[in-house]
Every structure is written in structure tokens, then in C-alpha cells.
Amino acid sequence: MKYRVHRFDLRMTREQGKLEQFLNSLEGEVVAIIPNVTMGFFWIPQVNFLLIVEKLG
After folding, report:
1. 52 with 5: CB under 8 angstroms?
2. What are the residue ranges of helices labelled H in the chain?
3. What's the burial of 10, exposed, middle or buried (CB within 10 Å: 0-12/13-18/19+)?
4. Residues 30, 3, 1, CA angle at the centre, nearest 5°?
5. Closest by alpha carbon to 5, among 50, 47, 37?
6. pTM listed for this prediction
7. What share of the chain is helix, strand, coil (3-state, %, to 5)?
């Protein structure tokens, strides 16, 4: 089995459609979606990017 890891930069409030389009364009099976969470202004958590693990057939 081969796996491919994609990095998807995003702003969660604005790019939901872009993420949906990206996930639907993948050829293999999505195994995991791992968010990179950082603390922003006033200690508010923010997601900067996602790591998406795809299993190729």
C-alpha cells in the first residue's frame, strides 16, 4: 500500500468550499485529516493547515 500526505492551507471560516472540492478530487481513500491548531489572539485556537493522508490503491 502507498500513502500520500497532502498539506492544505486554509482559513476555516472562508474556504470550506475549497476543502470540499479538494477532498472530492482525490483519487484514493482518505485515511486521516490532521489539523495544525495554534493559539491566536486572546488565546483563541485557530487551524492554520490540514494534513490529509490518502491511501492509494
Report:
1. yes
2. 16-25
3. middle
4. 110
5. 50
6. 0.85
7. 25, 55, 25
Query: Which grid coordinates are listed for 28?
Result: 484514493
pLDDT computed for residue 53 by the predictor:
98
Residue whose grid cell is 476543502: 19
Residues written for the chain: 57
28 in Cβ contact with 55 (< 8 Å): yes
Inform me whether the pLDDT recorded for 13 exceeds 80. Answer: no
Single-letter code of the amino acid located at 9 = D
* Spacing of C-alpha 48 from chain mean position: 9
Q: Which cell goes with 17?
A: 468550499
